[in-house]
Write a structure and sequence with these properties.
The chain is mainly beta and 127 residues long. It has strands at residues 3-7, 10-13, 18-25, 32-39, 45-51, 61-63, 71-76, 81-86, 95-103, 116-117, 121-126. Strand 7 (71-76) and strand 8 (81-86) form a beta hairpin.
């Protein structure tokens, strides 16, 4: 079965950076659309970023408005890994970050659209 494992979270100060990693095993990673979501205490699981696997045309990426300009989602199919580089972190970015996968090429931005999920990695931004 498909297994998803996140890593790279930690404690950073406001303005700092983190790169989260998500390794997928047991499935055909290069045919999955991948995404990151996050859940802060007392809030719903919100969309962060997504990336599909299309080569022609070019890979499609999507970002939450709060992430545009300071985050980059990327993937390395040789490593079955998707990354989320986050810069200029803010206290409101504090959350558990989850990696999600679904078979298909269409970008989607809702949690219900994804089939496979990791257990999350904690990101804490101090003020």
């Amino acid at each position: 079965q498909v297994h998803v494992v996140e890593s790279g979270g930690g404690l950073v100060q406001t303005g700092g950076s983190l790169r989260l990693s998500c390794v997928v095993s047991g499935g055909t990673f290069n045919t999955y659309t991948m995404a990151w979501f996050r859940k802060a205490p007392g809030k719903v699981r919100d969309f962060v970023a997504a990336i599909n696997w299309s080569l022609w045309p070019a890979l499609e990426r999507s970002y939450a408005d709060s992430m545009k300009g300071r985050s980059t989602i990327s993937r390395d199919n040789a490593k079955n890994t998707v990354y989320l580089q986050m810069n200029g972190l803010k206290p409101e970015d504090t959350a558990v970050y989850y990696c999600a996968a679904v078979a298909g090429r269409n970008i989607r931005t809702t949690a219900q659209g994804f089939t496979y999920w990791g257990q999350g990695t904690q990101v804490t931004v101090s003020s």
